[in-house]
Prior knowledge:
Elements: H1 2-23, H2 29-51, H3 62-88, H4 91-99, H5 101-112, H6 119-136
Helix pairs in contact: 2-3, 4-6
Amino acid sequence: MWILWAALAAISAALVIVLTKAGLKNVDSSLAFAIQAILILLITWGVVFYQGNFGDLKGIEKNAWMFLLAAGIFTSLSTLFSYKALSMGPASYVSTIERSSLVFAILLSIIFLKEKITWQIVVGGIAIISGAMLIALSDSAE
């Protein structure tokens, strides 16, 4: 079932890139993210209340709070950087470079989460970086 959710996330992320790029015409990238953040806040808390998970806030451990808050900071920074890049460059190039974050996530997961490294992960990571470099260094980039 996780594959379905991951595929939906990938499709949603692709739509975010294209719709954001279209919406950034004559709009500051930080302001654009602030507008979207309001919707993110409303939708996610709406889901929490709908699922009845609000009471679970009390049970979250201190360690988990620290990790979640740090992830929130980096989510905000990542989005701000991405939107700035989208305001300046083509969506297909920006998203390609941005999605190379998968390789960094793999490396950090191996180092900090002690996840297993396989030859498929290594080859896939090399393919991702190679593809991102190929696209980013092509003549059509602005």
